[in-house]
TrEMBL record:
Protein name: Selenoprotein S
UniProt topology in membrane: Single-pass membrane protein
GO biological process: endoplasmic reticulum unfolded protein response; retrograde protein transport, ER to cytosol
Subcellular location: Cytoplasm; Endoplasmic reticulum membrane
InterPro entries assigned to the protein according to its UniProt record, in alphabetical order: Selenoprotein_S (IPR009703)
Native source species: Phallusia mammillata
PANTHER family registered for this protein in UniProt: SELENOPROTEIN S (PTHR28621:SF1)
Biased composition (Low complexity): 174-188
GO cellular component annotations of the record: Derlin-1 retrotranslocation complex; Derlin-1-VIMP complex
Biased composition range(s): Gly residues: 189-199
Gene: Sels-002
Biased composition (Basic and acidic residues): 123-134
Length: 199
């Protein structure tokens, strides 16, 4: 009877059924469940990411292809050149770099010289002003020019202010006699009429 069960035949009547065992490996089932849960949780994010990637690729596909084609042409040119041509090309590039570096150094030296000259002139001007003040003399010409310019600006502002100001009283106004034109506004006593006598 046991042999019949092991051979796959139908179990005899009254015999217990063997335990049913899952034929699928546990690792495959676990991986499938994990993938399914991930899709259920982040499915919309995956869709949005895919759409965004397609939009970006459609906009930047042409520049990227041009960049790689340019690099490919450069390498192709180098591959097709002889060793002498490659060496000459490298020497030309080094020469161009040296020229650019020399130009940069020359401009830097010129800027440093100009800055040093300006600082020297400023220092000399301060020394001259200090010596002149110690000797009781007038200040240097530069300081005089600055003060003169400031004085001219102040004078111009005062003149403009005086021209724009309006008079407080009209020119025909007299504080004692009133205005010279129009009826008189000062008080005058009554003509010849005194207080009545009697009743």
């Amino acid at each position: 009877m046991a042999d019949d069960v092991l051979d796959g035949g139908p179990p005899p009547e009254g015999a217990e059924h063997p335990n049913l065992v899952n034929q699928n490996p546990y690792a495959i089932v676990s991986a499938f469940n994990s993938v399914l849960m991930f899709i259920q949780s982040y499915g919309w994010f995956m869709i949005f990411g895919f759409v965004f990637s397609m939009v970006v690729w459609s906009n930047f596909e042409t520049p990227i292809r041009r960049f790689f084609q340019k690099r490919k042409r450069q390498f192709d040119v180098t591959d097709n050149m002889t060793p002498e041509q490659i060496e000459a090309r490298m020497e030309a590039m080094d020469l161009a770099r040296r020229r650019m570096q020399e130009k940069y150094d020359r401009e830097a030296r010129q800027r440093a010289e100009i800055r040093q000259q300006m600082e020297e002139e400023k220092r000399q001007r301060l020394i001259d002003d200090h010596d002149a003040m110690k000797a009781g003399k007038t200040q240097s010409g530069t300081q005089k020019k600055i003060e003169k310019k400031l004085e001219q600006i102040n004078t111009t502002n005062v003149i403009k202010k005086n021209k724009d100001a309006k008079p407080l009283r009209p020119p025909t106004h007299s504080p004692l006699g009133g205005t010279s034109s129009g009826p008189s506004t000062r008080w005058r006593p009554g003509g010849g009429r005194g207080p009545s006598a009697g009743g």
